[in-house]
Prior knowledge:
By secondary structure, the protein is mainly beta. Helix content is 3%, strand content 44%. It has a four-stranded antiparallel sheet with strand order 1-28-27-26. A four-stranded antiparallel sheet has the order 2-3-4-5, with no helix packed on it. A hairpin with a 5-residue loop joins strand 2 and strand 3. The longest helix has 14 residues. The chain is globular.
Amino acid sequence: MQRGVVIALALAAVAACGRTELAKLDVPPEETPADDNLWVELGDSATAGGISAHGGGASCIAVIVDTLGRVYVAWADDHAGSGQIYVRRFDGAWSSLQGSGDGGGISRGTAVVGGSTCPGGIDVDAADRVYVSWHQFNGIKQSVHLRVWDDASWSELGASATGDGISNGLVTNSWWPSVIVDESGTPWVSYTSASDAYVERWTTSWAGVDGSDTAPGMTGVSNTAALIHVARAPGGGGVAAAWTEQNGSLHVATSDGANWTALAGTVGTSASSSSRPMIHSRGNALVVAWADADDPVGRTQVARYEAGSWQRLPAATTAGGQQAAMALDTQGNPVIVWSNPGGATRQIRGVRWNGLAWSSIDGPSGNISDTSFDATWPGLALTPEDDIVVLWLQSTGDGTAEIYGKLLSSGT
Length: 412
């Protein structure tokens, strides 16, 4: 399906319902948002039950767009009694993929009550196969899992969704995975366990690189890591990993599949803590973002790797804007969305780096979500043509949440 068809269907759905979904964003630095940014629903993605439509209980979001412009979202919810992992796709309408959006989802009902279930990452390869990673509780410990959709069926890589999954060699809880498929088609998964940061890749089995799958993982010192996130290495094959450590520092290293190489030393150091690292690449661009507790008003920090060193960009969000997500456009410039705590309710807001400053991506309503109850923990993906897809957890006002989302067309 061509990109124009997907967007035309979204716009047609809005027109048919007599709605024009507009949104606005006030961002730092102070700037007048454009009034012609048209945020539209993808089907009924921001109406009633939204994308999840399970009657509440949704949590955690991961979103990706494939080369055909189809939007995939993975999320967790407990409508079936325990938190399971679900996936739906938008290609003109929202649909499940062999039962992935209902029942036991792609976790197949194996997660049990008593722990946490959350999709940590989602990615597509050059053939538009979809890779979803998540952590779940099996009654004894948290473990990291993965399934792959090939446009016909869901499958595992080895025993990646069986038993303790990818993290089966660890006796402690494993949490918060991310997944990326490098330019050679090799999938990599990162996760945290016992305050150590791990990275594994799939060839004919799951294994680390240069000790990245055994304690103490990436840090070299046990019990020092907080969270880790992976991206494609810029300009070639392999992977880039960003992780925070408990001393407040943020680090990045790249691997070609044989060894790890630190990238220009420490990206940033906080006297208190750095958390929630995000790393993304596109072409030769590599950008990291993170929450820095030293920022007096709690803004998301951003740095770009240029000419062998890390260059800090201005803080991207308003005060308290640390529930953030990031993606890069085709020029390698970051787009960031976050849940803004100002006003009577939290709303989703966002900015785009234009090469010189952060610019608004909203229209006249003051935010992207424009809802009556709290909108939190957004997910973000860009199409190959730089259309922006934003999803979020939408409170229903009764203590539960559904998955909502909107699209902003680049107009190209």
